[in-house]
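Sequence only, no structure available. Ideas?
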Amino acid sequence: MTTLLNVKDLRAYYGQVQALHGLTFSLNEGSLTTLLGANGAGKTTTLRAICNMVRSTGAIEFDGQPLGSRSTENIVRLGIAHVPQGRGTFTAMTVEENLQLGAITRTDKAGIVADIERMYAYFPVLKQRYSQQAGTLSGGEQQMLAVARALMLRPRLMLLDEPSFGLAPLVVRDLFKILGKINREEKVSILVVEQNAQLALELADHAYVIETGRIVMSGSAKEIASNEDVRKSYLGY
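Reply:
I predicted one. Tokens follow.
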């Protein structure tokens, strides 16, 4: 399989505080990978570092191209979409305006219209709410909108930060099913940071476990799910 994202000796800093201590990992094209760890382990910082949103050192390559000197906007244009924790939708704008904004870097008007309809097929509730302000949507609907807006970029890699945060279990299950479908059908590679380890491991094909800014375990999702230490620490049995 082709390596899409390659991270070597990644170190990240907030002021004088070092948050990541030499992370090295890779993602294959078409893969769905999860990054597991407790709060404060460095998961969110890892996603931010990939997008050059925090001060970092080390080497990050996307499809063979170094990202270190590129702006966040330039990284997005390469085909990396970031859905941050908290969803980040534009609450005063309608659902459809948010989707159009997601395609702001594109000029193919017919393709944009077709992609909006494709998002409505993935998330039918958004079509019902297309003229509604994003700030009036439920938490689950806002998360769906955030994912759909990211997909409007036609990304090759999507970074998802705690997509289940604050959502009801049934909503989370539905959302993760759609993410799996997007990965399979759209061939979008996904790196997901998730507190719900059990669900993340069911969805993913590969997993990394991070503790205090260091990767302490990696393997197939099945291998990680069957590891006794992981079960006790993250799966609760």
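The radius of gyration is 17 Å.
Hope that gets you unstuck.
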